[in-house]
Amino acid sequence: MAEKFSVIMFSGTADKFIPLGVLTQAAAAMEMEVSVFVTGFALGAFAKKHMEPPFPAEFAAMAPALAKGLKAAKVPSWEEMLRQAKDLGAKVYACSMMSEVMGLKKSDFSDLVDDVVGAATFLEKAENGQTIFI
Amino acid sequence: MDAGATRRRVVDARDKSCPGPITDLALAYRRSKIGDVIELWATDPGVRADVRAWAAKTGNELVSLEDKSGAIVSVLRILRR
Hints:
Oligomer: heterodimer
Order of helices and strands of chain B: EHEHEE
CATH topology of chain A: Hypothetical Protein Ychn, Chain: A
Radius of gyration of chain A: 15 Å
CATH class of chain B: Alpha Beta
Number of domains of chain B: 1
Helix content of chain B: 25-40%
């Protein structure tokens, strides 16, 4: 059975979405079974109607140079990278509790989200694999 | 296995940043058969370590890894699907 790589995506700022994209895409390319549990401040970015995640205030001064560097290096957006991971088999789950708190139903999420599940379901999927918290 | 049916596929991932080259390799791998050879062209220096890791993880063979015409060319033989 394939090794598992799971991400608990909690943070809602743009800097944290970059490693989400890079690591899920890389893990999927390594033929790992990838699961992402989206909760907390990250959830809003997965709604159909959403704003791009903002840069955190402490890094705001670096944001323009970083954006320029990312563009020069032709780094795809976090969404493109996650989509590529999904094309290779990654699954994205929205946290049911946080969805309810934010008034988001399954139909409110973009097609990046495969399902709305509880924490226990995610933990069962992630069992005996590597799990990181972003 | 019919050796005549094996193929050599060239994958051009030059100018793609990590993890683009490994992803293109994975996409070619998904379309390959046992015995096929994939030649991956990349410019991201991370690819040198990444193809070794990819081959070890997926159980395939890194046949060669060399610098050619300003690119890093990895040749992989598919042993496992």
